[in-house]
Amino acid sequence: MLCARERSGYRVADAIETTGNTGVMQSAESVSVNDFVFDVLQASRDPHMFSLGFAYPDPSLYPRQHLTKSLS
Predict the structure, then answer these.
(1) Rounded to whole angstroms, how far apart are CA atoms 54 and 6?
(2) Higher pLDDT, 57 or 66
(3) Does 28 have pLDDT greater than 70?
């Protein structure tokens, strides 16, 4: 059984706390990872959002002239 502690979050309740407990039991909530990923991908399409975890820099930052010169 989980026990809520104010300003600390949730933790597993001790055996002493669970005896005589008349608290309301709530069923588990199903969370879909696919829905979360879809929400993140949809948010990335927003032009007002900027991802700080993006792995690829802006192409304007690439040294194209130096690369072209080296390859030629």
Answers:
(1) 36
(2) 66
(3) yes
